[in-house]
Design brief:
382 residues, alpha/beta, Aspartate Aminotransferase, domain 1, eight-stranded mixed sheet, three-stranded antiparallel sheet, 12 helices, globular, binds pyridoxal-5'-phosphate, pyridoxal phosphate binding, pyridoxal phosphate
């Protein structure tokens, strides 16, 4: 069986978790502090704040900006439902706009058209690890005095060219960036999330929100020679990361450059193998973007049924997924949500499939996937 994805962990991660279990400090302690420091240094952000997952990271990013009832946040419907849900958690309204079919990311012209006097932020998504058009989107946001929150759940290690130099996603370009360490992403801690920002006030607030707005962190209280009484400043949440997760994450960070290099090789090989397939549209990497290839998405030619292709591949032991979901087609958003034309988003969901991709993927597996896909395309043609 060729799975859709496979996390890459070994004894190093197992040992790190083991040692942490025996250390006596299991949650939001020294491992979390070290993981935050190393993550911030890696992406080039002044601050990184660890949380329980990327959904909670998105929630806190919006709360920290004071977004709530009556506010509009522009985002993609064509995303995992967490993007839209995080806006709803705050009582704000997600305003869905369409994507550019070439990159599966927000179309800046559609975003510009959707801005109203109630728009407080653009929640941009680096879908499947491909950087979105951050330069024009941040410029647009700046002109309107609104924030940019990056849903970088899939985009750890992806790069974007700003001027003539390459930055990692997470270096503050927007207001805050949110990452996921779910096993479907490029590195994993089981569950886990991280926020980066250059704003020390945002960083301070994020740390309050994630721990019931307790004004003294445990790490400070624990090391203090004097008795400290803490205060709870407002109604916050428990969105803490555990130290076992952070210890695993630190090992995963060390692997990141190799994992990305491998994934880029696998993606390039797919493009060679599939490049000559009539009517199949391969993913497009703009010259200013370097994807981490969290997913490899191909668009099927017209006249070929998505579900049939996926079933036939599955029968041959090859797992695939359909194109990224559209939130506006799901029950919570099927009613009177504000939405603009979402034709490209729907087409992307209905006409694309994600192929298996992981760092350990070998040539023989890729050839099997390519051959199976080719016979599907040929079968339809006759
Ligand atoms: C995975 C994902 C999320 C949610 O991440 P969790 O860590 O599972 O909460 C949010 N947005 C996008 C685009 C994702 O792919």
């Amino acid at each position: 069986m060729i799975p859709i994805a496979k996390p890459f962990l070994d004894k190093a991660e197992a040992d790190a978790a083991h040692e942490t279990v025996l250390s006596g400090w299991l949650s939001q302690g020294p491992q979390v502090v070290a993981f935050e420091r190393e993550f911030a240094a890696l992406v080039g952000a002044p601050h990184a704040c660890a949380v329980s997952n990327c959904t909670t990271a998105l929630h806190l990013a919006l709360l920290t900006l004071g977004i709530g009832a009556g506010d509009e946040v522009i985002t993609a419907s064509h995303s995992f439902i967490a993007s839209a849900n995080s806006i709803r958690y705050c009582g704000a309204t997600p305003v869905f706009v369409d994507i550019d079919p070439a990159t599966y990311n927000l179309d800046p012209a559609c975003v510009a058209d959707a801005i109203t006097e109630r728009t407080r932020a653009i929640l941009v998504v680096h879908q499947m690890g491909m950087p979105c058009e951050l330069v024009s989107l941040t410029a647009l946001a700046e002109r309107h005095g609104i924030a940019v929150i990056e849903d970088a759940a899939c985009a750890i290690g992806s790069q974007i060219k700003i001027g003539d130099k390459w930055d990692l996603i997470g270096k503050p370009h927007g207001t805050m960036a949110c990452f996921s360490f779910h096993p479907r992403k490029v590195i994993t801690t089981g569950e886990g999330g991280m926020l980066t920002t250059s704003d020390s006030d945002h960083n301070r607030k994020l740390r309050l929100w994630r721990q019931h707005a307790m004004d003294v962190p445990d790490t400070v209280r624990h090391g203090s020679p004097e008795v400290i009484f803490e205060k709870y400043l407002f109604v916050g949440f428990n969105y803490r990361m555990t130290d076992m997760q952070a210890a695993i994450g630190r090992k995963q960070l060390e692997r990141l450059p190799n994992l990305i290099a491998r994934r880029r090789t696998v993606a390039a090989r797919y493009s060679e193998l599939l490049g000559s397939f009539d009517g199949l549209i391969l993913p497009h990497e703009p010259e200013w973007a370097r994807s981490n290839w969290q997913s490899y998405c191909v668009r099927l030619p017209d006249g070929i049924d998505q579900r049939t292709v996926m079933q036939n591949l599955l029968d041959k032991g090859i797992a695939t997924r359909r194109g990224i979901m559209c939130a506006h087609r799901e029950a919570p958003y099927a009613g009177g949500e504000q939405r603009h034309d979402l034709h490209q988003s729907e087409l992307a969901q209905d006409r694309s499939i994600l192929l298996p991709i992981y760092a350990q993927m070998v040539e023989e597996e890729q050839v099997r996937v390519a051959n199976a896909l080719q016979s599907e395309l040929e079968r339809v043609r006759v």
